[in-house]
Design a protein that fits this description.
The protein is of the alpha/beta class and 269 residues long. It has twelve helices and 14 strands. The chain is 37% helix and 23% strand.
Length: 269
Amino acid sequence: MMKKILVLDIDGTLTNSKKQITEATKQAIWGLMDRGHLVALASGRPTPGMRRYEKELELDKRGGYLLSYNGARVVECISGEVVHQNFLPLQVVPKLYEFAKERGAGLITYDGDIVISAFEPDEYIKLEAGINWLPIRHEPEFVEYVNYDINKCLMTAPGEQAYGYEKELQELFGDIISIYRSEPFFIEIMPKNINKADSLDRVLKGMGMSSEQAVCCGDGYNDISMIKYAKVGVAMGNAQPAVKEAADYIAPTNDEDGLVDVISKFFEE
């Protein structure tokens, strides 16, 4: 049997619309791990926002990896060791702040288990904090405050505006950082060339594995890189149209235990 790795986005993929892992999904994941396969969670979430699901799947006991901040930080679950991380160049933070201020967009980063907001939190920042179970702190002196290593920033705006801001940011800063959306209203601002595929490739090479052994599942724009990278790229039935176009297989939705279908189809004995 060839060992494989199942790589899962969290929101809209591992969890259903209630942000829960169903019992059927949990049992299917445990079953493939019992057969010697591996599991990694890959999300735009900060590391603290992934810990609940790490523990629920018992990855901290069974083994696995967390690729947080879209892969800017990689953690080995049993040891808790950060095996790799990349940081956003701090010289870009003042420019991001001015860009967001001029357009009325939201802007955050993270300080441990706290969401640091440059402005009064908008509905999207409140959503980001809520799904990660993290408190928000408004720091009016955001530029001065952020003088430590950060893995990413997140800019927020309504979908149509965010699409335009994404393109503007790419033109202004695309030579030094990576900019892409994870949701219509979330603009991920990452270290250059950091995405889920790049970090997964680093993890697999460290284990003597390759993309030929990867099954990657997701639903959002920031999942496209790993879906294209994997031997089998899976879009959930609830995925954005662009994600489905990139995929090799379209599974049932996250509310239909789509991952059970994926595991049955691609991790048979």
